[in-house]
TrEMBL record:
Superkingdom, taxonomy of origin: Bacteria
Native organism: Gluconacetobacter entanii
Listed name of the protein: Copper resistance protein CopB
Alphabetical UniProt keywords: Signal
The keyword Signal is assigned to this record: yes
GO biological-process terms attached to the record: intracellular copper ion homeostasis
Length: 263
């Protein structure tokens, strides 16, 4: 009889009251200790719980892998970068170069950078740059920013320094979506030097420019063939230095085709 009364008493307790007793500590943001007493309430910055922002990711982009043709012959150019790290800290690698009409590898620029996110759209980068190609090797320190400017322009601005003076590079591009897969991309790169370097045909001031207009079709999101028109040229002192070295293709307007890929 006693057991029957106990069972009837338990069944008389409303389920909703039991559920409320179980969930009340959690909805108040409190933790429950082993002895059943409530601990200090849990508080979040701006009321937002923490996110998983320390996972390690990797990304690589071969932005230019192309052949260029004009009346003087053909050229090959590549430009790519890759990074590995977290949302805030990354190891960033960049490399570019050109095989000219003379068959020599030039414009070899290779960089190893530490990247730190400073805002939602921009990172600051610092590291070393090595000019390694057919010409004399040069080493530079590097510091700059990279990210998305207003209206989602992809921009890079980097300053370099060494015992040979200072240098600067400005790069920018923009993806204009004609359709979901057909994309028109204007692109420009400008290089500046504080001192001339005759061995590498780099002149003081604006030394050279590389720009183009490319139309790509993203057959797959990670693989896009493209065609376009590109221009590369040297200016001011760089023009004089290049002619002294016997170079004649100082201003090239090229028909270009290639592929863009990433993973």
């Amino acid at each position: 009889m006693r057991h029957t009364l106990i069972i009837m008493a338990l069944l008389a307790v409303p389920v909703s009251s039991v559920h409320a007793q179980m969930t009340t500590p959690m909805t108040r943001g409190s933790t429950v200790q082993a002895n059943g007493s409530a601990a200090t309430p849990v508080t979040y910055v701006n009321g937002m719980p923490p996110v998983m922002d320390h996972n390690i990711y990797a990304h690589a982009l071969l932005d230019e892998f192309e052949a260029r043709y004009n009346t003087d012959g053909g050229q090959f150019r590549y430009d790519g970068q890759a990074w590995v790290g977290t949302d805030y800290n990354k190891l960033w690698l960049k490399s570019e170069g050109t095989v000219g009409t003379n068959g020599r590898f030039g414009d070899g620029d290779h960089e190893v950078l530490y990247d730190r996110a400073i805002s939602r759209y921009f990172d600051v980068q610092t590291g070393v740059r090595m000019d390694i190609d057919n010409g004399p090797t040069r080493a530079w320190g590097a510091v700059g920013i990279q990210g998305l400017a207003l209206y989602f322009f992809d921009v890079e601005a980097t300053a370099y320094f060494s015992d040979r003076g200072a240098a600067g590079r400005l790069q920018g591009s923009y993806d204009l979506l004609l359709t979901n897969r057909l994309i028109l991309q204007p692109q420009v790169e400008l290089n500046f030097y504080s001192q001339s370097d005759p061995a590498r045909a780099n002149g003081r001031g604006l030394s050279n420019i590389d720009t183009g207009l490319r139309l790509r079709y993203e057959w797959h999101r990670k693989f896009a063939p493209y065609i376009g028109v590109t221009y590369s040229g040297t200016f001011d002192q760089a023009t004089t230095l290049a002619r002294a070295r016997g170079e004649h293709d100082l201003h090239n307007l090229n028909f270009t085709f290639g592929v863009r890929t990433w993973f």
